[in-house]
Amino acid sequence: MLNDDLYRQEILEHYRSPQNYGKLRNYTLKAEKINELCGDEITLRLLISPRLKGPASTRRQGEGVRGGWIKDVKFSGAGCALSIASASLFTESLKGKSFTQVTKITQAQVIKKLGIKVGPTRKKCVLLVFETLQTILKNDKRKHSKKTKRYT
């Protein structure tokens, strides 16, 4: 019971003073998502830096953001305490991760970050930021595949 109270307090702190809330002026990727059930909305902006590790000769041509890492991330929008707190915690965990690492994040990991049990009706609130990231990844994948598509 004490742990639940501590986690609830942390959620309220992230709701009142969310980390990474605001807008990036210079961003590489952006997506917006609305939870149709409750009206929560999130806009997520990522600043992707090119991969710095390894010699330039080992980089693939056209690699773009897929070989980079997240230098900065911001979110904006409005929503319930769970939605905003989840976005705050989630964006903190994205900083410094490679684009490849980000593609491997699961819904369960996002929910676990809150430290409380989330019922089925509130899952969409908690996962709104994750779904926004998935939109970014899908859009970038389509953009990347169009650039590298070969016609024979």
From TrEMBL:
One of its GO terms (molecular function) is iron-sulfur cluster binding. SUPFAM superfamilies: SufE/NifU. Signal peptide: none annotated. Residues 7-144 form the NIF system FeS cluster assembly NifU N-terminal domain. It comes from the Bacteria. GO terms for biological process: iron-sulfur cluster assembly. This is Fe-S cluster protein. It comes from Candidatus Doudnabacteria bacterium CG10_big_fil_rev_8_21_14_0_10_41_10.
